[in-house]
Every structure is written in structure tokens, then in C-alpha cells.
Amino acid sequence: MHNIIHSIGAACRHRAYKLLKSFGSNFSNDFVVKSNPEPTNLAFTGYRLHLHTDLTYYQQEPGIQILHCIQKSEYGGISEFADGFKVAYDLQKEDPETFDTLSTVALSFVNHGLHKSSKADYVLCDWKPIIRLNQEGEIQKIAFNNTTRGAWMSVGPDKIKTIYRAIKIFNSALTKKENLISFALQQGEAACLNNTRVLHGRSAFTVPPGCQTPRHLQGMYIDWDEIYSRMRGITAKLK
Which domain holds residue 30? Predict the structure, then answer.
């Protein structure tokens, strides 16, 4: 999306509320992504963010994420995206053992802290495999985030090496040239992505002393249920 309102917070809210209700999370209904001297999340630093999906510690992750660029960085912060379904399909064909591990072994994902608005404590946790299949054995969702992956796994010690090997293979496949898309979001542009399929990340960036225009994104989540509901409503009106 291009040429979106620049006022902080208004762009995502305007875009999402025009379509449907947003997904509330521990980051509030909309959130700011920029370097913070006292960060509560790796995203709020200038460090590299490796490819991941968001809110893996929720039982039902949001389906859509909107990232609106308020201010781009001149010192890094290149956005990166990869299609997790494509990587999973490749593994299913070329390395079925790894695919089986990633689609059957449940991993823990954990996050804790203070809610932005209420300041109440939260401890969020869920268990799920990286590749989730539906009842027909088809790839349905991807959940992958090494920064929120917990230490607990649903297997015995003898399987730990197998799991870590599978995670490493999946992570390496994401960054292959044929799977990775990277570009700099420009001011006024927004990336809209399927959070349970497309993994996103960014290169590291710096905020030089005295810099008045640090990298600044505004984010928001939307649930697929809301999208499908609106689609059905529009279809019914058009009949």
C-alpha cells in the first residue's frame, strides 16, 4: 500500500477500522516499532530481527499484520520477507524427515511483561509445531520465532538434537536467495502480510547521535475471521 496518512497511529487505525475490527494483543491495538533506550522487545532496538511470525505465544495468532512506515532509516533497517509455505513445501518434497519433525513436534512459545495500557502483568504461552497441518494433511499455518521459543519441547532428551537440526534447516532455508525478498519500506508505504504464512524481519540499523528522524513503523493486527466476515457481508449485498 502506498501514500498512506503520515500522522502517527492514524494510518493503521484508518486502514484497519475502514475494513474491520483490529486484533488486540499485549502490544495494544496498534503499536510503535522504533529504537527505544529501554526496550521491552528486540523489535524496539536497532538490532537485526531474524525472520519470524508474530505472537506465536497466543493460541490463536492474528492472521494479518500491517506495518506502516512513518519514517525510514538512512542507516539500515531493510525489511525482509519469506514465504513459509513455500519453504515447507520444499522440505516436504526434499527432506521429508525434517518436515515430519517440524509438523509433529510441539514447541513452547513464551512471552511475559506488562500490558502497554493497563500495566498489568501478562504471561503468555502456547504449544504448537512450526508447521501446522489441517485434517487433510495440508499445510495450514507457520509459527516460527526464535526469540519467543521456549526451552520446553514435547519430546524426550533423545530427540532434542533432531529438533534443533530441523529448526536450523528451516531457518537456513528461509534465507536462501530464492526464498527471500528484501527492500526498504518508504515513508507512506505499508506492508500487509499473512502472519501465519509470511515471515518478516529486518536488517540492523543505527540511530546516530543527534538523529532527528530514526526508523519508525506503526503496526496493527487483524484477525482472519474479521476479514472473512466482511467478505461474506459484501458478497451478500452484491447478490
Answer: 10-234
